[in-house]
Amino acid sequence: MTDKTPYQDSLPALERAWKLASAYVAGLPERPVAQPVTPEEMQAALDEPLAESGCDPAAAVEEWFDRAERGIVASSGPRFFGYVIGGTTPAALAGDWLAATIDQDAGLWDATPASVHTELVVLRWLKELFDLPRAWTGTMATSATHANLIGLAAARQWTGQQRGFDPADDGLGGQPAIPVISSTEIHMSARKSLSTLGLGRSSLTTVPATDGSVDLDALQAALDATDGACIVIANAGEVNTGAFDPLDAVADLCDAHPGGVWLHVDGAFGLFARLLADKAANLDGIERANSVAVDAHKWLNVPYDSGFAFVSDEAALTNAFRSSAAYIPEGDYPDPGAQVPEMSRRFRGLPAWCALKAYGREGYAALVQRCVDNAALLGRWIEASDDFELLAPVNLNIVCFRYAPSGVSDGKLDDLNRRLITAVQHDGRAFVTPTTWGGKGAIRAAFDNWATSDADVEILWAALNEVGNELI
Ligand SMILES: Cc1ncc(COP(=O)(O)O)c(C=O)c1O
Question: Which CATH number belongs to the domain containing residue 396 in this structure?
Fold first, then answer.
């Protein structure tokens, strides 16, 4: 037996990565959230010819960090409020490191019984956390987009079968169309999933949404105009306002539709409202859905990339994704890879297991409550301000607003808000992103990070006001 194995060569590189990572994590609250950098500057910092002879792995890790640092955004830090981006809790980060180290292929039971069973436990815990029907089948996914794809693939399968064909086996060519209905506020990721599934990102029928929430009369009319089985996509947490479609009422309309409806719910971040006594009613009726898509890298605060999907009809899910080959015989135990688009998969269950174990139901309820309270705090300051205007009620964790100081004409406000967002991003104290709401150029601040405190909200508010003042 030799003293040294080739794997021991990993240790100096891991030590270097540990030093960089621990300094990064410790410095997250103080680090500028983002720094202005152009694509040309990043290209100059990183691009070079492929190495012929290579170098010491530890040096490679360190060199990358030094060269890339200006383009690293502290999006897992406490003052990143753009898009809908969660942080990474200590337990999840440690779990993710271990997942990379043991490098399991969580698509195959034989390849990794521990990972497959961890994932199953996580999925059961999530059903308990959100009080979802325990009989639902769950899968871990890379994101809410991927979870939307998984849920809608099961939806396509079921709806096609109701219409007399098998979409996965037969394909869609020459078959009856599969109608899909949603509100105009459907998330772009669900549209992207529809395009990937051959259902068409534009053949979707959209009906109006009032303040982000589907108009039930319009949905009823769209269902009345649809013959036979179809798919309805509902929002549990609209991305600009956090508004919810009334799921129970939507499910009533679906139940009454001749031919049947597969109800898919995008609850990427909104499902977490289920953890709060005064917000949970927004999700009444979720148990009547046929599939639900959720993100884990948002409010579960596990590292990228991670999400999960739940499906009520396991056969529809398995028929959508099953595949076989001589070199991968079907075992006694179902392979997770048989219920998702990919075969080989990262062990996403481990960071989620560590986080759910470390923080439990109470820890997550407190995390979600803190985010909702912080969003409400910013909302109150905006309402009380002469210079800012709230564009939608703060329904959950998203604040949609604009800068509208007196003396600036309405026609100039969209441009002013765009410039304010860029200037705040360059300022580095906080990070917000743009949207449009009610035809007005708007600023979005989303609260999804476990570590954001009210002091961080104060810093955001100071940055918005000070940078705004400088602009006018
Ligand atoms: C409602 C909703 N659905 C889906 C997504 C897509 O999530 P991801 O980018 O993780 O795929 C988002 C992202 O913000 C979202 O807010």
Answer: 3.90.1150.10
In this structure, which residue's CA is closest to atom 13 in ligand 1? 84
Q: Which residues of 57-74 are buried (b: 16+ CB within 10 A; e: fewer)?
A: bbeebbeebeeeeeeebb
Nearest C-alpha neighbor of 16 from the set 73, 77, 54, 57:
57
Low pLDDT (below 70) residues in the chain: 1-2
Give the pLDDT confidence score for residue 324 in this predicted structure.
85
Q: Which atom of ligand 1 is nearest to the CA of 295?
A: 10
CB 354 within 8 A of CB 424: no
* Pocket perturbation via mutation, ligand 1, pick of 142, 145, 185, 304 by most ligand atoms within 8 A of CB: 145
Answer yes or no: do 307 and 437 share one domain: no
448, 86 contact by CB (below 8 A): yes
pLDDT of residue 8: 86
In the prediction, which pLDDT does 333 show? 77
State both tokens at 306.
Answer: 């991670």
pLDDT value for 332 = 74
What pTM was computed for the model?
0.97
Task: Give the sign of the dihedral formed by CA 327, CA 332, CA 336, CA 338.
Answer: positive
The per-residue pLDDT for 2 is: 57
Domain of 182, in residue numbers: 94-355
